[in-house]
Amino acid sequence: MSVKSDPEMLTKIEQHYNKWKKTPYRYGGSTLAGSDCSALVMNFFKNKLSKNLPRTAAAQAKLGHQVTKPKAGDLVFFKTGRSSSGLHVGIYYANGQFLHASTSKGVIYSNLNDAYWKKHYWMTRRVTGS
Predict the structure, then answer these.
(1) Under a CB-based contact definition with an 8 Å cutoff, are residues 25 and 106 in contact?
(2) Is 65 a catalytic residue?
(3) Contact 107, 35 (CB under 8 A)
(4) What's 23's DSSP letter?
(5) What is the SS3 assignment for 117?
(6) Is there a contact between 123 and 84 (Cβ–Cβ < 8 Å)?
(7) Is there a contact between 36 and 27 (Cβ–Cβ < 8 Å)?
(8) Domain segments of the chain: what residues?
(9) Which of 16, 65, 100, 120 is an active site residue?
(10) Which candidate in 16, 37, 65, 120 is catalytic?
């Protein structure tokens, strides 16, 4: 399902995880004290890629172009109905893993093939490069 990922992008995602991994989920939050999914993504793009993204998952879902085979740094979207927009977003890592702010576990890696994520998966969008 995945394509060859850029080692530099993998390192940037790992660094972002290492900084944010103890951060609890907080709807509307955008700091290490508490963050929601779209803020985690927004902070990654700003701090690791020097790219400004919109604040909400709904606005982020309109960026770039849709792809069928994710690579590191792509945005993965889910229709969960948990937030006002009903969208959840994460950053694709590799081998089905993606980084996100889980409502119950805070900032973690999860797997696209887990039953819950597979059921709610919507699309993958590439906002970096080609």
Answers:
(1) yes
(2) no
(3) yes
(4) P
(5) helix
(6) no
(7) yes
(8) 7-126
(9) 100
(10) 37
- 3-class secondary structure, 96: coil
Name the maximum alpha-carbon separation found in the chain: 35
Domain 7-126 belongs to what topology? endopeptidase fold (from Nostoc punctiforme) (3.90.1720)
121 pLDDT above the threshold of 80:
yes
* DSSP state letter for 63: S
pLDDT of residue 86: 87
Model confidence pTM above 0.85: yes
- Residue count of the chain: 130
Q: Is 16 a catalytic residue?
A: no
The residue whose two tokens read 């709610």 is: 120
Among 99, 106, 109, which residue's Cα sits nearest to residue 23? 106
Q: How is residue 74 written in tokens? A: 């792509």
Whether 100 is catalytic = yes
Query: Tokens in use for 34?
Result: 């508490």
Active-site residue, selected from the candidate residues 16, 65, 88, 120: 88
Check residue 114 and give its pLDDT: 97
Question: Would you state the structure tokens that stand for residue 96, as one six-digit string?
Answer: 């089905």
**Residue 100 pLDDT greater than 50, yes or no:** yes
- Are 36 and 29 in contact by the 8 Å Cβ rule? The answer is yes
Residue 81: pLDDT band with limits 50, 70, 90: confident
